[in-house]
YbaK/EbsC family protein
Amino acid sequence: MRAPIGDFDRALPAPDCLELLTEPVAAAVRAWTGSVPAGQLLYVDTDPDIADTAVFVEHHGAGLLDASANCVVLTGKRGESTTLAACVVKSATRVDVNGVARKHLGARKASFAPMDTATGESGMEYGGITPIGLPAAWPVLVDATVVDTPWVLIGSGRRRGKLIVPGKALADLPGAVVLEGLGVPAA
């Protein structure tokens, strides 16, 4: 089947290619109970050398920029307590770390998690972290514009491959909270 967005030769239902996903992502797809059927979570094979958004969009179509979302891992700290959380925003924006995200987490300080923490705790590769399959205890903060996007291109858990999912499916993830203004224009 052709992908609903982008210039991809072929898209496969994620349940049909679990071996191409990291274990946490594959487990989440196997256990999927969202309002969108698991078969609408699509996998497209991509070159890991062009996984970064700007290069990826240049190669697969400029229209993908508005349909792409990044998932970044934050640490929120309050006293001795540290919370890991994921934030999903459109690729053309950046996470409002010290505003919307920090306040929602009830943290005194919020920052991007170190790479080894983000990859080690998620079980995913740097540059491929996706909100699907993250640890159940993590809040998954999703910008409302992502949820309102018909089809969203996100990571697959690896640098090779991407998932294309209906934006509304991200609101159904465990720990998901849809927030207005989480993504702000990139400076």
Observations:
- The chain has a mean pLDDT of 94.
